[in-house]
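User: Predict the full complex structure for these chains.
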Amino acid sequence: AQKITQTQPGMFVQEKEAVTLDCTYDTSDQSYGLFWYKQPSSGEMIFLIYQGSYDEQNATEGRYSLNFQKARKSANLVISASQLGDSAMYFCAMREGRESGGSYIPTFGRGTSLIVHP
Amino acid sequence: DTAVSQTPKYLVTQMGNDKSIKCEQNLGHDTMYWYKQDSKKFLKIMFSYNNKELIINETVPNRFSPKSPDKAHLNLHINSLELGDSAVYFCASSQESTGSETQYFGPGTRLLVL
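Assistant: Here is the predicted structure of the two-chain assembly.
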């Protein structure tokens, strides 16, 4: 079973509008971390935001926020006021702890391609 | 002042050859990783390594081997290259001992096997 599911292969948004990229995860660990990365067409992987499983508040970094719903096992990325430069692939990732004998290495979703229209 | 660097950026080679990709990080991190990204953009962890433990993704063929001369370097050796090895390979690093979760990625090495 996939540990990270990103159900939206592609998303379109108008410049200056907000967009939500979905991510659901599967783990039996109590301690885990969730990440979002951005990969523009130039190819580099850029860290955006992190949420720990014990963090009570949703993580925010500038225009990025992570809508963390633990009971639903979802960690959606919200980008406010989209800009043309936000057009990229976005990857959700999770790193589990060692409670369940996991390897403590991260797994990535298959990504969502976001296109921002002018 | 690049945090995580990889060389070469592009690598074109013949099937059957042996090649290496170098990775260096100047962040003082204690853990380094290698990832493979295929043509469909799927990113798969290959290795995780710190000075105590090497964790290998069991699906990685043993033609691939990480070599770490010191804490700041984790090189990837690939023997007997195959067509299916063509991909982008990313190196990354993080500081595990402080519980910091963020991984910083290198720019990637685009490998093409002919």
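The interface with chain A takes residues 33, 40-45, 48, 55, 57, 88, 90, 92, 101-105, 107-108, 110 of chain B (CB under 8 Å).
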